[in-house]
Design brief:
The structure is a homodimer. By secondary structure, chain A is an alpha+beta fold. Among the domains of chain A are: about 140-275, Butyryl-CoA Dehydrogenase, subunit A, domain 2 (Beta Barrel), CATH 2.40.110; about 435-575, no CATH class. Helix content of chain A is about 55%, strand content about 10%. Chain A has 23 helices and 13 strands. In chain A, the strands form four sheets. In chain A, strands 1, 2, 3, 5, 6 and 9 form a six-stranded mixed sheet that branches. In chain A, strands 4-8-7 form a three-stranded antiparallel sheet, with no helix packed on it. Chain A has a two-stranded antiparallel ribbon with strand order 10-11. In chain A, a hairpin with a 7-residue loop joins strand 12 and strand 13. The first copy, chain A, is globular, with a radius of gyration of 26 Å. Mean pLDDT of chain A is about 90; it is low at about 1-10 and about 455-470. At the A-B interface, strand 12, helix 9, helix 10, helix 11 and helix 12 of A face strand 12, helix 9, helix 10, helix 11 and helix 12 of B. Chains A, B: InterPro entries: ACOX_C_alpha1, Acyl-CoA_Oxase/DH_mid-dom, Acyl-CoA_Oxase/DH_mid-dom_sf, Acyl-CoA_oxidase, Acyl-CoA_oxidase_C, AcylCo_DH-like_C, AcylCoA_DH/ox_N, AcylCoA_DH/ox_N_sf. Chains A, B: It comes from Nocardiopsis suaedae. Chains A, B: Keywords: FAD, Flavoprotein, Oxidoreductase.
Chain lengths: ~650, ~650
């Protein structure tokens, strides 16, 4: 529209393409497939549907997806799938046109089908998975109970084996043990993978999974199965969450998904894993894809929200510039607006690279391309937990910021932001409550720490110099040699340019993590001696959560650095370097109290970080549109009129009216 | 249920009563009236309504409210009101049973009626207000346009006076100038106070308000008035927001609300205020009640969300305590859970006192009990702007935190949190975008600063020692002598007990404000010399917003201190002192980077602040339930099953099932 825009558009389009190719990454073809398949009237975002209308629409969309190659991505070739773990994660995360569809896809093929795949025997897979893929057998993943969500080990639904009839009796002892919040249960599911305590020959073998039919062909609940409806929710109302109560429902012995535990006809229990606790966590570990996918889906919600808000902020004007000849200022030219959106944009980029790296590593392990040892696999599972927490909170915060940045227009359902925000909200809770996940990650970090340093009894083992690399704790995630080179080449303290030196930044986050984890280990050790373990861990909660967070920050930065290294386009790379600077320095700005308290930054230096964030906002502002275009989200999915030219059109008619008057 | 609970309940009830009396405060009778009137089937929170059902329900509720004393509170006795400004604010803020009703009440009697009252002549009030109060004339407040919301001075709807016919022609020149987001417009409004540029005799006199009929008795739009519907929104779907477009609509000369500007038959314009800019801001200033009420309403949303989450967290158990004999731990016994809810609870208390103080001061000015000079009135208006921003962001953040703290249950509409969160969201945008309001406040602080210190050209005027009190900038808001006494008696630095010394805390926040505002003044002055005023102000945005925020923090603390001083009950007072400590120290914790950078706290001291917040969480945990009960929100309004015993019942049946098995 004006002269200042033209150059951005010319150079921006090419750079956006280069960025998009980099972001699309290894599964670019899958992303394009989803872009191609999810279009047209059936998939257009629709605002203002009633819950029933929304559920029906999403069910129709799911049926349409079932006719594509998407459902097969994650399943083995033997049952008609593509055996492509990464593709299944990436396809899921792209379904932002309606996040209810995203979640419904995740429930059917990720959780329900994924549980049969991960926990079932070969025979069970061959029997059930073709129907699951084709959506002939719509199902649920019935793990959470009303009384126990986070503490899965204490689920209370029971499955008692009766050798006489060769059946299990699945039973809900009381309301606290009913299955709750179960997606696909209230309306569409015909079967459920039910997690229940397996009891046989008078012994409780802990939580196992059984495939239990819940509805007949006509959709009526089967005898003994009571199905409730969770009713309207804050978001995701296209997903039919429900409650399942089992009143002594009998299922055959073959209903037990038998990979990690089975019961012989006479009731004898056997498992390839002897230790019940290890068995349980191995079973849960196979379900890691859910967490990974949720983090990816949250990332796409953040991208979509930013695409809407940045486009609007780039077009919308408010207040005149003093001495500016009456021309009104674009929102994105205000520093306050930049500071709301651009650090969030930078973090969205950073998390994208971390997500991509995690998906690739899990894929290579699952497919056997680069199998991992158990320790490395456990590390990835912990990382998935931490990344899920950080990514979903980030997405929620970003969607909210974008809503506010669009003012009243951002509150209207037509502009997509309300739905994105409300939908992504529960991503912080499902597939593991974020706080609980961070605690898990912190415990894993402490275990690594103990493994590396042994018992902390003697004071000698816990003294560290700043900057010292603890190989045992800090496991570099990608591009190991590149990162080590950068760290080694980092300037010493006090260099004026160091704030934007990548090696310095890497070392700063690394040092923070080492110090935080080591300090936590010392603290728990000390406190553990004085009082009970619970009190010690509870008193240190803030420290615990912090250790997990700073670990994720460091891992994410390393993935970002590795991602930039893969970028062949010079212009795109220059831009990414700044985005990465903004990512790190806005993190440091947020946490500068810690850096000051621990004398990692002087007061002067901390103020310089603030100024650097300001400067980066200004430098990136002209490229904001390019950066969101690079996400490659079709206009059809964004759908928000304010992001698709409505504001520009209004300004033109206003200009016309003003010049006439 | 257990021994540990019994003592809390015995002492808690009495303390909760004492606290409630203090919180109910000066307009306790009004609060009780609303508690009495808003009950029963008609007012019960209802989840899952369609937009049309919700609008109809709220319209019925509004009609019921119209039959009570509530609408009259804010109007003068001459037109049948009570002339009780404070009562109108307090009644509004209590309507949390459905925030759509709260907003609809605010639109009809606060904004629409309030504009006629504030901007109309005596004759206009006498003519219209009785019908407004009785809801015979349902109306809208049509200020915001699609193209201009925050920048009200640039509204573009026109009102041209024609001496020939003695009428104004109200006109919308183009889509950017249509009235947008207008409450009561899409369905119910019959008239609107329309803000338009008044033009007569070839001269534009700026924005004025006219009373324009928009629908006939049958509810059909009048000729020339096009009424659109904003459709579904993130929340508040019981409010019928719409769009108004005027196509050369003629209204009589008497339609102009004439208190601050009128047009004679021949088209001569006159006003009691000569300066157009001062006139405009005087007109806006009379509308301050909207902002104040919104802050209060947001506060009640935060209270309701906390009441639900604290009650649930006090009952809900998850994970066993190692060595705890299998008993599961209550959520609120986890430090991480305490840290999510208790600082938010403390801030909610603090803001309640600040809100009460502001309402009382405005009331006393309006009713003439303690009239203010223009400077003091302007200060209150600025404070209202800042408090609105801080209170609404706090409420939004708190509602979200409470939702997450209740896990999946918090995501279900039945448990109220989704609606509270979604409704209060737009409170951060309407009645002034929060960021814009903080900028307004900061400008006012800078003006005060300039007034107090004159031109900043000479370096000599801008040198300050830490701790020096700038009387010109820091105007104590309440209990002036009490606060000065506390500050004077504060211990010096380094005293081990100082973190909980009120005088030290007051001085800390005061010092931060002085330093921040003085630094901002210097910075703008310096930058203003170097470049343009816009660039200078824009570059300093972060500093600008920060100045406003730290000002509000200090004002809120002083109000809290004054509030505690009014508390006659020793037990309640002891509790409040801790709540106040938690309020201040969690603020300091959040902002400890600043205190470190500016050498107000040492690293050791800053860590002690973290520990003090932890300790206060632990000390307040047993009283959390008491503190939320003291809000005096009837169970009927909370309505959430998880807050009303459902969780306890489930645990009892679970205990029963476990002891049987």
């Amino acid at each position: 529209m004006t002269d200042t825009e033209a150059p951005r558009e010319r150079t921006g389009d090419r750079t956006a393409e280069a960025l998009r190719a980099l972001l699309d990454g290894r599964w670019a073809g899958v992303r394009d497939t989803v872009r191609e398949r999810v279009r047209g009237e059936l998939f257009a975002p629709a605002a203002g549907l009633s819950m029933e209308e929304h559920r029906a629409r999403v069910a129709d969309q799911l049926a349409a997806i079932a006719r594509t190659e998407v459902p097969g991505y994650g399943f083995p070739a033997e049952v008609g799938g593509a055996g492509d773990f990464g593709a299944s994660c990436v396809a899921f995360e792209m379904l932002v046109a309606d996040m209810s569809l995203m979640v419904k896809v995740g429930v059917q093929w990720g959780l329900f089908g994924g549980a049969i795949e991960a926990l079932g025997t070969d025979a069970q897979r061959a029997e059930h998975l073709p129907g699951v893929i084709a959506l002939d057998l719509p199902g649920c993943f019935a793990m959470t109970e009303t009384g126990h969500g986070s503490d899965v080990q204490r689920l209370r639904t029971t499955a008692d084996y009766d050798p006489g009839s060769g059946t299990f009796t699945v039973h809900t002892p009381d309301e606290a043990a009913r299955k709750d919040y179960i997606g696909n249960a209230a309306r569409d599911g015909r079967a459920a993978v039910v997690f229940a305590r397996l009891r046989t020959r008078g012994e409780d073998h802990g939580v196992h999974a059984l495939l239990v039919p819940i509805r007949d062909e006509e959709g009526r609940p089967l005898p003994g199965v009571a199905i409730g409806d969770c009713g309207p929710k804050a978001g995701l109302n296209g997903v039919d969450n429900g409650r399942l109560t089992f009143d002594r429902v009998r299922v055959p012995r073959s209903a037990l998904l038998g990979r990690y535990g089975s019961v012989a006809e006479d009731g004898t229990y056997s498992s390839p894993i002897d230790d019940p606790s290890r068995r349980f966590f191995t079973m849960l570990g196979t379900l890691v894809r859910g967490r990974v996918s949720v983090a990816g889906g949250a990332g796409t919600a953040a991208k979509a929200a930013l695409a809407v808000a940045v486009r609007y902020g780039d077009a919308r004007r408010q207040f005149t510039r003093p001495g500016g000849g009456g021309e009104e200022v674009r929102l994105l030219d205000y520093r306050s607006h930049q500071r709301r959106l651009l650090p969030a944009l930078a973090r969205t980029y950073a998390l994208h690279f971390a997500q991509g790296e995690l998906v690739a590593a899990l894929h290579d392990d699952r497919t056997g391309e680069r199998p991992l040892d158990e320790h490395a696999r456990r590390e990835l599972e912990s990382r998935a937990a931490g990344l899920k927490a950080v990514a979903t909170w980030h997405a929620l915060h970003t969607a909210q910021t974008c809503r506010e940045a669009c003012g009243g227009a951002g509150y209207l359902a037509a502009n997509r932001l309300p739905q994105l925000r409300a939908d992504v909200d529960v991503f912080t809770t499902f597939e593991g409550d974020n706080t609980v996940l961070l605690q898990l990650l912190a415990k894993a970090l402490l275990t690594d720490y103990r493994d590396a340093f042994g018992d902390l009894d003697t004071a000698g083992t816990v003294r560290f110099a700043a900057g010292q690399v603890l190989e045992g704790v800090i496991e570099r995630t990608a591009a190991r040699s590149l990162i080590e080179r950068l760290v080694a080449a980092a300037p010493g303290r006090g260099d004026a340019e160091e704030l934007r030196d990548r090696g310095w930044q890497l070392r700063l986050l690394e040092d923070r993590e080492e110090h935080t984890v080591a300090g936590l280990a010392r603290r728990l050790r000390r406190a553990g001696k004085a009082g009970g373990a619970f009190a010690a861990f509870n008193d240190a909660q803030d420290h615990v959560l912090r250790a997990a967070r700073v670990h994720v920050d460091r891992v994410v930065l390393e993935a970002f650095v590795a991602g930039i290294d893969r970028c062949g386009d010079a212009e795109a790379r220059r831009l990414l370097e700044k985005v990465c600077d903004l990512y790190v320095l806005s993190l440091v700005e947020e946490d500068r109290a810690w850096f000051l308290e621990h004398e990692r930054l002087s007061g002067t230096r901390a103020k310089a970080v603030l100024q650097a964030v300001d400067a980066l906002c200004e430098e990136l502002r002209p490229h904001a549109r390019t950066l969101v275009d690079a996400f490659g989200l079709p206009d059809e999915w964004l759908a928000a009129p304010i992001a698709l030219g409505a504001e520009e059109e209004r300004q033109e008619t206003q200009m016309g009216a003003l010049s006439e008057s």
